[in-house]
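Raw record, unedited: DNA polymerase IV
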Amino acid sequence: MISLQQRSIAHFDLDCFFVSVECLKDSRLKGKPLLVGGHSDRAVVAACSYEARRYGIHSAMPMRTALKLCPHAIVRSSDIEKYSEMSRMVTEIIAGEAPLYEKSSIDEFYLDLTGMEKYFGFLKWTTALREKIMQETGLPISLGLASNKMVSKVATNEAKPNGQREVPFGGEKSFLAPMPVDKLPMVGRETAARLHRRGVEDVKTLSEVPVSLLEAWLGKNGIALWNKANGIDETPVIPYHEQKSISTESTFAADTIDMQFLHAELVRMTEKIAFELRQQDKLTGCVTVKIRYSDFETVTRQMSIPYTCCDHVLLEKVKDLFRKLYDRRLLVRLIGVRFSHLVQGNYQISLFDDTQEMIALYQAIDHIKRRFGWQYLMKATNV
């Protein structure tokens, strides 16, 4: 049996994905400082090109601030439908080639190719797949190759833009050693600052700190961080087709045709599982509505949608599906809502054209729901 330490893991990351799609739509945008997001001063930057980043611009920055830093930047409205379409196109290419892959976000993929190097050559095969993706989609994509997910992701980041990097088995620690600690995944500004205050600035130094001391500094996260600094990561590649859906349904005490009641139930169920999506940092790409009539006939209808986890977007899709599905005018015994085709991502990805206030509102709503329970704050029933 091959141990986890001898795995062959590839990480693919679509470079500046939203920006790249916009440049694909309009080649005149290539090489220019480009901002994707809303046009109002109160909107936020959803994505920005490498040229824009040179001015200190980053995603989630207020658009007004970004334009002050770079007044000549070009702003393009987001096209989440096109981004979702291109993401699915890349997914289909990978699914047709890779024996085991995980779609970890709208623009990132992990492939477990353990054992394939005997027959195809690990580097040769992944290079060919990368070239195929670029040829068939026109999108730049970077690639990292290593013995585990964490090191392969760091390798990808080092290969950007539009490059590839291989870290040979056994070379994980030496590859990571000279890097600043914030190059490690999940090491944010606060954790990096806490380490810097203790004289730990690079990964080599971090790897030499006794794990018991790191645990004392950072709790359980200290153990995980020690493993990362030493190039250790046994996280498996989770097959994409096994990604679970999130769903809920309600069987009524008495069959009903009360539309106001049914709409209220749709609002309740949609908000409940949309909150679950956000708690798990997931986005859904497919919505399904289910109806069971009083004669026990059960019907469902689904639609693929741009990836999102926002209540106001999902409620419109659920309402539209229910309207199209409910055509018998019989009493209803049960209704259900399911979100599937799940990928990692947070709600800011869906709020391209909304304001900072809208993002803050979602954050406030979720804070209240986490503290008191999702059912204590809901929208009005007139969906």
